[in-house]
Structures are given as structure tokens and as C-alpha cells.
């Protein structure tokens, strides 16, 4: 199955599955955010992607770019907090790259994800190592860009997973956890975990065959 | 979780309706989480807001002489850009709008996106970002300080400046002066519980307190054994004053702000010692606010804010305001 | 016991000093626990008071248009007669003094002894005893109902009547009309801890509440499972309205009073349903107060008060007041 | 030792001992008041009699009547609550009966206590059985009046003790506990316990030989 990619249906499945997994992981993400932030990251993400999925169903957009925009607007309008503008930006940038496409091949997808990552940096001004979701996006995208053939792609999920878990020992430099200073070390960054899950579900929608990561037991 | 609520998903919605039902001078923009003055004056518009759970902030500071609009996010979650945009449009009277933002990544990003939307529609929008919390180190490598209760002084002074007819740039200048002149720090005896999560934001032993907390139930910078009210005041006040450029005979305004569950009697006991210590530091207390201004749900604890005054700030601080949560004490 | 205090025996003393340090319009009579207005007007004097721990009551309601003096006892302990006597002497301007007493054995006995002392010195003293709590059965065999948050309406209306220049007998008549027209009932989610005892006033499971509580941490008349905010409002409001002579199209004032630790957001959520239910009962809500008016230290819970209005009461309720804890919301 | 009575020194000892015993029983009285009232009866009484004792020492009055008045004023000025005016009245009435006496015999004392009881009723308007301190004063005085000879007097302590304990099962009709309705049953009335202690210490000062009652274990 060379030329793996994504069509509208797969994208809708991706959003649907991500929303469901977020709902299931809500308490865990809240608990992580409780320890080093304000305890709402799970609630925020679940609310946002529930809305996104509903809007996607209601509006049935005609191409991937439009679908991404529907998701972006849903997130911007329902999440708030730090994750709202950040995940909103991700889908806005992705939408720009996938404009008018009914189907995207892997290069197009990676290009879109690169634009999304740049968007995160522009919005949040974080660097790799600041204990934010960028700590997952940076290495995962680097890997995907270098290893975009099908078999290797599966490994990207493992890269994202490790990257999310590696945020545990870091001291936060950006976001709410940064106020804790050294006390922020010892807990995985909630946004990194939701981003790790993002890549898990995304790659599963791309090509299938991804084993479900037991985030709850790994991060708590 | 023991709370007097109905459906957690309706928390903010019912709160806002219950607020406007009680305060006729406020209205809720239909279909939004935006509270604006029922009657707007022709002047620079002032919009603030943030997550809910800080009541009376921010809607309680909407009224003649303070804010024109306040945007309420979910509990402790900054509001979304579209909501802030609605507030900007509603209060804009052609003289531009100033956004008063507390320094949190989420608040800054969401308000800035709203500002971009508004500018795209030709509305003049400026902003000030409040960062009064001395608990947090301020360096170029960090996100900078948090905005906490000192924000209320910015609402008051900027509100009076706008009411006095100043231009957007002038109101922004005055607001920035308050931001530069106000420092705060807080502590907690107990955590709070965000309704949607249902769990306490942290756990403390019976003899422990958190020092240097934010206003979202975040743990503070340090956990310590509980001390007396006076010792606690000494600790916070010292950090605050060390960070300010105040010298003997300077005039200041003080805010002793309850976090939600601290009895007013304890806040007065705290102020008793604050008054003694400011005197010992040769500071003249021009005005003192004691009460709940910027809370964290049912958290027990308090924050202290000190605002260094000059003649301009005194005038605007003294100006009357009809905002329901602003208490005017006669001089 | 986790409190921001210093020495329990100095609790009231430091609180009163901390209060007058913050509010220049109030002064403390030297050597007493009496707070009076810094500037008294020539009119009938109004004195209230009771145990401490109910802040902002009672000193927070001292100011032009409300009380002239407030006497603070130890926490939850009615003040002694000599203190009340000092207050009466200080506020008397030759036009007599009205005492506003909440119906507790201790308060009534101590205030009455003070009235006897004052009359012995030729001062005209009258009193009203507030008994608004419908939780308690009212019969000739009992002590009668307790006075709770509805007392604040008596302070406001009687204060405005006195300010308007009415005679002692007339002010007493108006105050009595409020006593006859106001009904309240409260509930608690948590107990409170009197500093001197150091122990919670009762114990409640995580899913239990006390219904029909007083304002001194006493257990209520009934322990129940916690219900939603709306169901709780229904329960209290029904008892209150059943006890009042209100009929469709009557005008009422509402007070949603926090017991000390209830977030303002929850009080607004409560008011949201109160507004719906009064409407459903065809009552016109003329004015609503939401906030902390008569608290029980750091107790979590609330009370509802309903005051039936007529034109006279409306006028006095609307009159401005400078008391620091009275929030004037523009109509 | 026929003709047992009380002189100034004995009175001072009585106030001193009562103050001390109240301080020791403070938490117990607070706990009783916590269950059916507002938890301050111990604090109130200890504060009041501590003040009374100090004033008595400072003013060294010349006769029993004056001494009682010093105590009455100290209580009225320092207790507050319901117990302040009630115990204040007790000593005011007692002072009236013992006016100008350096020493009182048993008849004079009983007369004074009768006047005090009447004072309680006038101030508090309670009846026997209302679960107030009157539930102790009423039977104890009745007994003392009928059995005023020395040996029998000792038994009055037992009467007071039983009377205080018998308030446990009653439903309060007066005072703060009355608001609890039926829930007030099951706890001894705190004012009755402090009055029981009053008689124990008083009779001990009169004639000695009174065994210390373990109130704490009896009432909790
Ligand atoms: N400046 C930033 N750049 C990138 N990601 C950030 C930044 N600030 C915060 N984040 C991410 O957002 C997450 C928190 O999101 P959330 O809890 O929903 O918002 P809030 O912090 O406003 O409560 C963090 O875990 C982090 O991964
Ligand atoms: N009307 C009354 N007559 C006689 N005794 C009373 C009356 N009311 C209360 N008491 C007594 O006072 C005691 C309570 O005193 P205390 O707790 O000090 O005052 P408060 O009830 O004001 O807190 C009760 O236990 C009861 O014995
Ligand atoms: Mg968060
Ligand atoms: Mg948040
Ligand atoms: Mg009491
Ligand atoms: Mg008591």
C-alpha cells in the first residue's frame, strides 16, 4: 500500500476517533494539568473536538481544506485557553496546505503538518524543550519527514509517544506550568500527551495498523 | 465535589443569566458569554475578561467608570476569540477599544486573535497585559509574570481615564502606568475544585499552605507550614515591596483580596497588620480595598496588591464608578 | 483549624482595627468594640450588632443612609450591655435611638439591659427584634424565630427612614413593617470553625447538607442528601413563600446571601433559578441583592430572603447609602 | 460544724475555684454547645469568671454584697451571649441579698440563691423542663431549702448533678438549642452543666468535703 494518504472519509474518521479518545482520556489529561496547571486540558480538548466532530457532520465540507477549516473554527470557538488557539492554528494551517484537495498524499500531509508546527511556534513562541506540545511536534515531524514510507510511518507513533513521555522530567518554560518553576518537573505535559494521541490517531487514520497506546497507565 | 450547581456544562450560562437578573445596569449579549453595560457612553471602550470562577471579576467591574464589557470563558479557561470579538464590536463607539488582558498564554493568544479580527474590520484596538504577580520570576526566558488581582486597579484607573474622555492611546498609557506600578502576591490555605473536573486542584495537609499561587487553583511556587496572619503578611509584603521602586513617603493603594472562602473578618485581621507594616516602611496608604475582587472559586487564602500612586493615578482611582463590585469608600 | 489569624483572643480587636484602617468613614470608639460613623447626622440614631463572624455585618452596614453604630461581640457571642450602651450614647443626637436586634436570647437580653441603662440616663430608646427565619417554628411556646440575613433589609430601610428625618416612633414603625414583611431560610454545605473552640461546628458527610441553619454554625433543623442548586432553591423558596402573605403581582426584593465560602458564581446560579421561580409565582422582583451580607465565618452555603414591598419600603430601599457593604445597583 | 456559712475569703475561693474548673471544663462545655448550640458556652464562661476573679482580686471589696456586685459587673461586661446576662443577674441578685454582710449564714445564702433563681426566670422567661440552666437551679434550690442542715447539704451536689444530666433527654424550648427542635434531645444542656458545676464548687466552698464530679466523662 504505497502512496498511503488520506481522503475526506478518513479525515472525518480521524476527527471522530480523536474526539472519542479524548473523551476517554479526559480525566487523565485533567489530572496531569491539575498537577502542573489548572486542571482543564482534558475538558478543553474533549469539548473542542466534540464540537468539531459535530460541525463536521453538520456542514459536510467538500474537500480536505474546507474540512480542516470547519475543525479550526469549531476549536477556536469552543476551546479557549492555550490549547484552543494552538489546536485551532494547527487545523487552520493544515487547511491551507490541503486547500481544494479531496484526497491528500503523504507529501501533502507532511507539508500541512509542517505548516501547522510553524503555526504553533508563531502563536506560542515556544522552543523545543520548553515542555509544551511542541516537544512532541518537533521530533515527530522530523521523523516523519525523514521516514515517510509506509512501514516507517508506523514508527512515528512510537516517536510521538516517547516524546510525550520525555516531557515528564523537564522544567516548563512556557505555558501555565512555567509558573511552577522546578516544581513542574515530574509530570508529563498535558498538551504533549494530547498531541501524542493526535499523532497516534492521525497515523491510524492514514494507514491503520496502529496499536492503541495505553496513555493513561503510561503518563500517570 | 460539594457545590450548589445544576449541570456543570451550564455553569457559566446560568451564572451569567443570574448576574444580569440581579444587576439591571448589565446586559448579556444574546447568544454570547459577553456582559456589557446596558447604557454605553461615547468614549474609548474597555474590554476585559478571562476564565470564569474569578467572580466578581470580570463582569462585576463592568459599569460607568470601569469596564464596558467583560468576556467570560469556561471556568479557569480563557474565552475564545469570537466571544472577545463580539465584546469589542459591542462596546466600540468609534473611539477604539482597549483590551485589558491578564498575562496567561491562553488569554493573550485568544485576545490577540480577537484584536486581529477587529482590526480587520477597521476597529482601532490596543491592549495592555497585566503581570503583577511577583511570585513568578520575570525574565526573557520565561513567559513573564502572571496577572492576578492587581488587574482590578487597571480596570478602575483605565475606566476612569476613558470616562474622562481620554483618547485610546492616552487610556493605554495610563493603563500601562498602572501595570508598571502594581505588584501582587497570593497564598492559599486550601485548593479549589473546578466543577468540570470535580477534583481539588491540589492537596494540602492540615498545617500546610501554598505560597505564590495563581488564580486558577494552580499550586504555588512553594509549600510551607502555616504561619500566623502577621508572619504571612510580612512574607508576601516583603517580596512585593522588594520588587517595587517605592521609597519613604510614597503613596500607595492597597488591596487585600480574598480568594473565595476566606472570611472577611480574617481579611480585616490581615489588613490590620498590612497597615502596621506599610507604616513601618514609611509608606502612606492612600486607599485600601479589602474584600473579594479576583477569586479562585471556593479557595481559601488571599493576595496582597500594592499600587504605587502619583497624582494622575489618585485622581482616576478616586473617580466614582457604578460597577457593582467596586466599593467606593468615602474619604 | 486553618485560619489566617494571630491570637484568637485578639480576633475581634484586630479585625475592628483592620476595618477602620480600610474605611475612613468609620471609626472605632476608643476602648470599645463599637464602630460608628465618623460623621454623624442630626437624626434618629440606629444601632445594631451581635456576635462577630458575620462580616460584613454589622459594621459594614454603618454609614450614611444605614446604621450609625454597630457593636461587635466575641465571635458568635452577643455583645455585652456596656458596649451596646456606649454605642447608644455615641450615636444619640437627642432624637432617640432605635436598636435593631436579631432574635436570639443572648442578643435580646444584652441589648435590653443596655436600653435600660440608656433610659436611666434619659435617652429615648426603642427596639425592633428581627425574626425572619422560617426554618424555625413560631409559637408562643418557643423562643420565636431567629433573625438572620433579612436583618440587612431592616438596616437599609430603617436607615433611609432615619436619614429622611422621621421620628423615632416613625422609624420604629417602618422598621417593624420590614420585620413583618421579610422571610428567610438558609442551608449549609459545610460547617464553620469558631476560632476559640478550634473545632468544626458540626460534621457532614460528602453528600449531606444541613437545611434550616442559623448564622452561628448551629446545625439546622434537618440533614438531607445534597440536591441540585435549583432543587435546593425550590425547597427553601416554597417554605418562605408559604409563610408570607404574598399574592400574584406583588413586588418583592430578593437577597441571595452567601454564608462565607460559597463562590459568587454559585450565588448567581442560585439567583438564576430564583428569578425563574419568582416569575413562575407571578411575583415581581423589584430589586435583587446577591453577595455576602450576613455570613457565618467560612461556612459554605446560602440563605434566601424575600421582602414584600410597598411604595414606602421601595422608596427607602432605593435611597442611596454610603455603608461600605451596601451595593447600590443602578435601576 | 452547725451554722455552716460563707465569709469573704470563702467567696473569693469559690470564684477562684469555679474559674479554674470552668477553664478545665471549657472544651467539654464548648463541645456540648457545639452539638446543640453555637459552641461557645465554655469559652464564654471561662472568659467571664477569669475576668471576675481578676476584678475581685484587684478591687478587694469589703463585704459579700460588694463582692457579688464586682463579679456581676465583670460577667456582664465580659461574657455576652445568653449566659452573660443570666450569670450576671445571678450575682446581682445574690449581692442584693448579701448586702453589707462580711459573712453569711446558710439561711441568708439560700435566700440569695432564691432571689438569683427568680432573676433567671425574669430575664430568661424559661420554665423548668425547657432544657436551660433553670432545670438545675429549680430542683437544687428546692432541695437545699428543704434540707439545709449540714450533712444533707452535701446531697445537694448530687441533686444538681442529676438535674444537669437529666437535661440530656429533653427537647429544648428556650435558648439557641430550641431552634433544633427534636434534634436537641440527646445532649446535656451546656448551661445546666455549668450550673451543676456552680453548685458543686459553691457547696464545696461552704462546707468542704465535696467529691469532685467527673463532669467531662458524665456529660460527653
Ligand atoms: N506557548 C505555548 N506554546 C505551545 N504550547 C503551549 C504553550 N503554552 C501552553 N501550551 C500547551 O497548552 C497546554 C495547556 O492547555 P490547556 O490546559 O487547555 O490551556 P490553559 O493552560 O490555558 O489552561 C500545555 O500542556 C502545553 O502543551
Ligand atoms: N431563656 C433562658 N433562660 C435560662 N437559661 C437560658 C436561656 N437561654 C439560654 N439559657 C442558657 O444559656 C446557655 C447557653 O449559653 P451560651 O452558649 O454562653 O450563650 P449563647 O446561647 O448566646 O451562645 C444554655 O445552655 C442555657 O442553659
Ligand atoms: Mg489548563
Ligand atoms: Mg485553563
Ligand atoms: Mg453564643
Ligand atoms: Mg453558645
Comma- or semicolon-separated keywords:
heterotetramer, A: 220 residues, mainly alpha, Serine Threonine Protein Phosphatase 5, Tetratricopeptide repeat, two-stranded antiparallel sheet, 9 helices, 68% helix, 3% strand, B: 331 residues, alpha/beta, Rossmann fold, Hypothetical Protein Tm841, Chain: A,domain 3, six-stranded mixed sheet, binds adenosine-5'-diphosphate, binds magnesium ion
The total domain count of chain B is 2
Give the class of chain A from helix and strand content and strand pairing. mainly alpha
Largest sheet of chain A: 2 strands, antiparallel
The major sheet of chain B is characterized as:
6 strands, mixed
User: Topology as H/E string of chain B?
Assistant: HEEEEHEHEHHEEEHEHEEH
Q: Give the distinct bound molecules.
A: adenosine-5'-diphosphate, magnesium ion
Identify low-pLDDT runs of chain B.
Answer: none
Shape of chain A: globular
Tally of separate helices of chain B? 8
Distance between the termini of chain B: 43 Å
Helix content of chain A: 55-70%
Q: What would the principal axes of the Cα set say about the shape of chain B? A: globular
CATH fold-level name of the largest domain in chain B: Rossmann fold
